[in-house]
Specification:
This protein has ten helices and 15 strands. It has helices at residues 41-48, 55-58, 125-129, 131-144, 161-172, 186-191, 224-228, 244-256, 270-282, 298-306; strands at 2-5, 16-19, 29-39, 72-80, 92-96, 107-111, 116-118, 152-156, 176-181, 196-199, 212-217, 231-239, 260-262, 289-294, 313-317. α4 (131-144) crosses α5 (161-172). The radius of gyration is 19 Å and the shape is globular. It starts with a strand and ends with a strand.
């Protein structure tokens, strides 16, 4: 089968199209023919080994745990192991391979209890593939808050993959949603249901007098101290993309205040995938696709995500 591989850390050019062995499902696995995937910030970070600590998991000097990136997928079940009961051949599915990676390929084998669900009938493979990363991450953190109807929620980075999902999910949970983004993305965030939108190029966070019950930072580029100043004394700060600096700041805040801080890796499950599926089918959650690329254009797709100007998601089709 064809796959996009990488054998060293670095820029998009380390990615290459290769022929690799097609996987065979074990008794508890399903073999999925991938129709579409997406390039997310997690893929880019692992490609670059940024942060450096990623090397402790995926290989110190070069990637050794896996040579195929890719977290999300939408596709069709081509074969099932003899003990599989949840899916059958021909089922159209979408979901995550999680941090085992491997979706930048024509085929993948996943356990039947992986974070998968039947693809919504009203979604194309491309539309379904872009939902799981941002949708799952946003859902994980918002449930940890947890969001209550009537609460005021601020989402920093509201135009990215996680942010666009978070705006819609917070609105679904009954919150009064404020999105923070750049000037060019204000209309997009409003269209997703945000009650208020703050343009960070025009408004300094330190000048905002409003206090929020929950602040969700989806991009990890803002001081934790600036974010906590936006919260009520017993509010919740969700750090969806915290690295070392934010992590240290978060420890100090937890020791010196009553603010609840949620960070760490988002957990994935088939239950959450089915919840997202229901919202997609009802129209309460909509995919946001910025650009589309073919499988052969994977390097170009990574270059675009590297610019940091991605709105929503970048989709990659395999057919």
């Amino acid at each position: 089968m064809k796959a996009i591989t990488y054998h060293q850390y670095g820029p998009p050019e380390v990615l290459q199209l290769e022929e690799v062995e097609k996987p065979v499902p074990t008794d508890q696995e399903i073999l999925i023919k991938i129709k579409a995937t997406a390039v997310n910030t997690a893929d880019v970070r692992l490609r670059k080994a940024d942060p450096f600590l990623a090397r402790l998991v995926y290989g110190l000097f070069k990637p050794t745990k896996t040579n195929i990136l890719g977290i999300v997928l939408a596709g069709e079940v081509e074969a099932v192991g003899k003990s599989v009961t949840r899916y059958k051949k021909g089922d159209q599915v979408f979901g995550l391979a999680s941090f085992n990676m491997g979706t930048f390929a024509e085929y993948i084998c996943l356990p039947q209890d992986a974070a998968l669900a039947i693809k919504p009938a009203n979604m194309t493979f491309e539309e379904a593939a872009v939902i799981p990363f941002g949708g799952h991450t946003a859902l994980h953190y918002l449930k940890k808050a947890p969001i209550q109807p009537g609460q005021k929620v601020l989402i920093y980075g509201a135009s990215g993959a996680v942010g666009t999902a978070a705006v819609q999910l917070a609105r679904h949970f009954g919150a009064e949603v404020t999105g923070v983004c750049s000037t060019s993305n204000v209309d997009l965030v409003k269209s997703l249901g945000a009650h208020h939108v703050i343009d960070y190029t025009k408004t300094d966070l330190s000048k905002i007098s409003e206090k929020y019950d929950v602040v969700f930072d989806t991009i990890g580029k803002v001081s934790v101290f600036d974010l906590t100043n936006l919260l009520h004394k017993k509010g919740a700060l969700l750090l969806g993309s915290a690295l070392v600096k934010q992590g240290l700041q978060a420890l100090w805040v937890m020791m010196t205040s009553s603010i609840k801080i949620v960070t760490g890796t988002a957990q994935t499950s088939a239950e959450d995938m089915n919840f997202l599926k229901q919202l997609l089918e009802s129209g309460e959650l909509k995919p946001v696709i910025d650009k589309r690329f073919t499988f052969a254009q994977m390097v170009e797709a990574h270059r675009y995500v590297d610019t940091g100007r991605k709105r929503g998601n970048v989709a990659v089709t395999l057919d």
